[in-house]
C-alpha cells in the first residue's frame, strides 16, 4: 500500500524479489571468501580481467607513487625557504627508506613502490589489502638499514576469527571492535587457509591478536579497502557485481571458439548409398569394408596434415559440412557484455577493451577522461590508506632518531599533519592529441587558472627537477652558441580539404 512501486510486494515483476536487508558486515559474511576466490580465478584465467587489473595498476601507480613534500609553512609558522629546505630533507629520508628493499620489506624482496602495486592488485581482486608495521632494530641493523621500521604484507585471507568461530558484536571476520565500531585489533592466522593440505601446515592453526596501535600509540596495522557502507569492516572485490557476466561471456566465447575449430577441421562427410546390411552382404562384415577403404590411398593436397580427399567407391559422395559458427552475432554480444562489465568496475569500454577503433578524437578524449576519474580515485585511496600512514611511521622514527628536525612533529597532531603535507605523483594521464592539449595547458597557465606546478604534476613530473634540468640545458646551449627554434603554440584553423578533380 506504499506510494513507491519499487517497495510493492504485489507487483508481478517484483513479487519474487525479496533481497535481505542485512548490515554491511552481515551481507559480506559467508560470501566474501567465495567472491575473493572467484575473483582470483578470473584474474588468473580471464584475459580481460587480467588486462583490466594490469591497466589500472599501470595507470594509477606505475612503478610507484613519488612523494613531493610540501609542508604547510603557514600553519607551522615558518618561512617558505625553511619549509622548502625541510621538504628536501623529508623527500631524501623517504627515498632512502622506500627504495631500499631490505629497509622497507621484511622479506627483502620488494621496494615500497612494488609493495604498493601488490596492494592495489589485492584491493581490486580481493577487495582489501593488509600490512603490518614491525619494529626490528637488531635485524635491520644487521642488514645495514638506519631504520627499525619494516613492513610485512599479509594476505587478507589470513584475517579471520580465531578457530573460525562465528562472529559477535565485538568480533567481525577477524576485526576486533571497540566502542562506536572502531577497530582496535586484528586476528591473523599463522598460516594461509589455502595451505591446509601442505605438509608444513598440518599442525593446528594459531591466531595472533595484533593491536591496531602499539603501547606508545604507534600504528601497527594498515588495513586498506573501499568502505562503501557505515559499519563495514572488510572489503569486497571490485569484480563482484559483474562476475556473472564475466563467467557467461567467457563460456560463450569458449563455445564459439571450439565450434570454429570443429568447423575448420571437418570439411566434408562421406556418404554411402548402401545401408549396413548391404555392406555386410557385399563384404562379409563392416570391418572388411573399412579395411578395404583404408587401403585406398587418399589424394593429398599438399597443405599439411589432414589436407586430403578420400577416394570414393561407386555411388559414394562427399557432402559439405558447415556449422555456421562462429555466430554472426558474436561480436555484438561480446561488445554489449563488455560494456556492462566495464561500467560495473568503473572503467570505460575503450580502456577496458583497449579498443579505440570506433572513436574519434572527441570521444576518445571523453573516454580517457571518464576512465581517469576511477584511476584518480584509486590513487587517492591508496595515498590516504596506505602511503601516508607508512610515511608517518618513517618520519616519526627519523625525528626520534634525530635524522630530521621537525619541531612539534611528535608533540602536536596539528603540526604533525602540517609536516606530512604533500602530493603523491603517479604516471601521467597521457595525451590523445599532444599539440591540442599542450596548447590548452599553455593557455591555462597564461590565463592564471593553472600553474606550471599543476601542469607538471598532471604529467607526473617534479617542477623543481624540471626547472633545474631546463636551466642546465640552457647553459649547455649557450656555451655552444646554439639556440632552439621558436615554436608557435597558437592553434591553426582547420583547412578545407581540396575538391576532387573534375568535381
Give the arrangement of secondary structure elements.
Layout lengths: L23 H5 L3 H14 L1 H14 L5 E4 L3 H4 L3 H19 L2 H4 L7 H14 L3 E7 L1 H6 L6 E6 L16 E2 L2 E3 L5 E7 L17 E5 L9 E4 L18 H23 L2 E4 L4 H8 L2 H10 L3 E2 L7 E2 L7 E4 L9 H16 L3 H5 L7 H41 L11 H8 L1 E4 L8 H14 L4 H7 L4 H17 L24
Antiparallel strand pairs: 1-13, 2-3, 2-8, 4-5, 5-6, 6-7, 9-12, 10-11
Helix pairs in contact: 2-3, 5-14, 9-12
What can you see in these coordinates?
With 503 residues, the protein is of the alpha+beta class. Helix content is 46%, strand content 11%. The protein has helices at 24-28, 32-45, 47-60, 73-76, 80-98, 101-104, 112-125, 137-142, 243-265, 276-283, 286-295, 330-345, 349-353, 361-401, 413-420, 434-447, 452-458, 463-479, and strands spanning 66-69, 129-135, 149-154, 171-172, 175-177, 183-189, 207-211, 221-224, 268-271, 299-300, 308-309, 317-320, 422-425. A hairpin with a 5-residue loop joins strand 5 and strand 6. Helix 2 (32-45) crosses helix 3 (47-60), helix 5 (80-98) crosses helix 14 and helix 9 packs antiparallel against helix 12. This is Portal protein. InterPro entries: Phage_lambda_portal. GO terms for molecular function: structural molecule activity.
